[in-house]
Amino acid sequence: MRKKLAVLFLGAALTVSMLGACGGKDAASSSASAVSVSSAADASSASVQDASKAESSTSTSDVSAESASAAETAGESSASELEDGTYTADFNTDSNMFHVNEAKEGKGVLTVKDGKMTIHVSLASTSIVNLFPGLKEDAQKDGAVLLQPTKDTVTYPDGLTETVNGFDIPVPALDEEFDVALIGKKGVWYDHKVSVSNPVLKEENGNDAAAIALADGTYTIEVGFEGGSGKSHVLTPCTLKVENGAATATIVWSSEKYDYMLVDGQRYDVLTTEGGSTFDIPVRALDTPLTVIGDTTAMSTPHEIEYTLTFKSATAVEAAQ
Predict the structure, then answer these.
(1) For residues 307 and 151, is the Cβ–Cβ distance under 8 A?
(2) How confident is the model over 192-237, as pLDDT tens digits?
(3) For residue 68, is it left (φ>0), alpha (ψ between -120 and 50) or beta?
(4) Where are the beta strands (DSSP E) in the chain?
């Protein structure tokens, strides 16, 4: 009997042992399968993330390329929006130390020619001696071309006048900030941001033209002259041609050394130097002082000099036909 019980117990133990071994194998197999599935999922997730990153990188590159292309053509498109001509425009700055003279009400004269834009601005005083279209670090490099001042006469509402510095500033684009560096009398350079906006075409025959109270025709007229050192002057009388209410004066200098004149910020090149430098310039009104700039090459380097011309209506005589 005891032997039978011992055999039975031994058989039961062997059975339990075999069942435990089979269970361990199944558990190990299940665990291995779970690890395999998890690894596959991780690999799939990594692939999706990599694809997403690649797509994002491509998208960013495309946007950067488009931005660069837009910046490249900004100046051209802005200029192409305006026809060649003369406009008034707002000149905006980032400083109350650098701004348009109050007599000009924040505006300058914008000239568009052959797709290029330049704005002439009269400043608050003569304290700013040079400008540079760019950053101050570039303005101080060898070969940097600085913008030279003109001498502008401004008239305030109370009738007082003042001579201030003016500048012709290249405009790369409208309604966009660009860099302009300046240097004052103390010799220190400063960086500034400026912009030009709201261009309005100046009327060829606007209110000023109404001040030409002469019928269409050709006249001789006396010219009052002030400015300069006294070595040169304009010949008087001069010829004044009135057409459709607009007047043009033929100015002849006593010197052949003038190569251009500036009138209302617009440049007029010499027509001939025979018998004196000769120019055709617009006359907005009679009996009203007109400030002009004459560039003379008589000295070792060219100099822009300010003059005042006054066309005297009482002396106008119609030329013989």
Answers:
(1) no
(2) 999 999 999 876 544 443 357 788 899 999 999 998 888 899 999 9
(3) alpha
(4) 85-93, 107-113, 116-122, 128-132, 150-155, 161-171, 178-184, 189-201, 217-221, 223-227, 238-243, 246-252, 258-263, 266-269, 278-283, 290-296, 303-311, 317-318
Look at residue 131 in the predicted model and tell me its pLDDT.
97
**93 pLDDT higher than 90:** yes
Give 132-200 as a DSSP string: ESS-HHHHTSTT--PBPPEEEEEE-TTS-EEEEEEEEEEES-TTS-EEEEEEETT--EEEEEEEEEEEE
On whether the CB atoms of residues 108 and 100 are closer than 8 A, the answer is yes
The closest of 256, 104, 223, 226 to 166, measured between CA atoms, is 104
> Per-residue confidence at 69, pLDDT binned at 50, 70, 90?
very low
The residues with which 193 forms a beta bridge, in sequence order, are 179
Whole-structure pTM value? 0.46
Q: Examine the pLDDT at 13 and tell me if it is beyond 60.
A: no
